[in-house]
Design goal:
- It is a single chain.
- It contains seven helices and 22 strands.
- By secondary structure, the protein is α+β, with helices and mostly antiparallel strands.
- It folds into three domains: 147 residues, mini-chromosome maintenance (MCM) complex, chain A, domain 1, CATH 3.30.1640.30; 117 residues, Thrombin, subunit H; 114 residues, Trypsin-like serine proteases (Thrombin, subunit H, Beta Barrel).
- Strands 17-18-19-22-21-20 form a six-stranded antiparallel beta barrel. It has a six-stranded antiparallel beta barrel with strand order 9-10-11-16-15-12.
- InterPro entries: CLIP, CLIP_sf, Peptidase_S1_PA, Peptidase_S1_PA_chymotrypsin, Peptidase_S1A, Ser/Thr_Proteases_Immune/Dev, Trypsin_dom, TRYPSIN_HIS.
- Keywords: Disulfide bond, Hemolymph clotting, Hydrolase, Protease, Secreted, Serine protease, Signal, Sushi.
- Its EC number is 3.4.21.-.
Length: 426
Amino acid sequence: MGIRVLCLLASVLYAYGQESCLRPDGRTGMCIEYTRCPEIMEKLNSPNRRNLNLRDYTCGFQRQTPKVCCEQTPQINLGNDCYTPEGNPGKCKNVTTCPHLAVMANSKDGNSLAYVFNSRCLTNRYDVCCGPPPTPVRPSDDCASEITAFPPHPDSQCCGYDAKADSKIVGGTDTSIDQFPWAVLLEYKKTDDWGRIVKKTHCGGSLISNRYVLTAAHCVTGTGDWELINVHLGEHDTRTEIDCVDMDCNERIKVIPVEQGIVHPEYSGFTKRNDIALLRMARPVAYTDFVRPICLPNSDVSKSTDNVEVIAAGWGRVNNTHRSPIKQQVKLPLFTGQACQNRYTSNQGGVQSANLWSKQLCAGGEAGKDTCKGDSGGPLMLKKGLLHELVGVVSNGPDPCGIEGAPGIYTNVFRYTKWIRRNIQP
């Protein structure tokens, strides 16, 4: 069987192809995915990775995954630690010694062969990252190449779908247990007056890839004595470790440390302009029914002339007095910039600034329906069929929440997609 597996894998490699390229030092190299290039991965994992300009090595893309011009004769070390396409830890070994990948390589199924191809470590074509067997990702099983630090493209069908494909927020309702699996909670800590470490969850965020969360800048830099430490993924009810609704139960939440907070350089805490930030998690997260990324938008929802309804989700205050332990959702009408500006005066709703600008969105303005304190940084979503796009990040709004005629204010994600992609590292 070993020879047959190697022959089949060789045919897969031939189908995907490897072209030659010119490296920054003038030598000829191989154009391959960055995860399969030892020299690039070593530099990315070093303390000086900020000095690496990946663009100098980029020679193309495999879907959303950058390809780099790699040395042709790298050193190969079997047994090294690695990560599978789903983000699970594994060991680099020959494909014939990894049972489930050997079976997949022996299959005629295109999705299985693509998964094996994307499991390769180093540049030896028969060495793969052998970890836990892959978990199917619905609704599209052809997502192995999209499970990277880079956000999937909406057309890939590898983002924006929750497991409940048929599928607080003031005036909101509880979500299904597997609804909006990209919604995350942020955890903070501080030392109290008695020297004790105190922790709490406060802001929200949205998972946009297996390594990055998008949130509001004021959730990173405007937290006073509170230090942002962790991302909670797969949460539904904060009161229980494993949540069950009817006959459906989720898994234990995943808690991953924040490695780096990247605040927009032009963020203003006073006007809340450019209220957006990226969080890089300390390790990749594996996707499940309860942990999945949402799609970045491919168009500006503020340019729509139709009556647009958007959805917000989070664990914020539900009646201006207490937070919801259960993830909430609320449907809100979207307003154009001028219509929103017309609804605000400098005195209305207690909003810091009524001078809205083109990179902000407005939604809500109905009595008793709004995002509220604790929802900051969370998602404002546009649903297109079964697909969800992240069109806004909760920024600020009236106080108290849910005032008639005073919409909430959100950062327009589409206006920052280039900034987001520029600041993502593998």
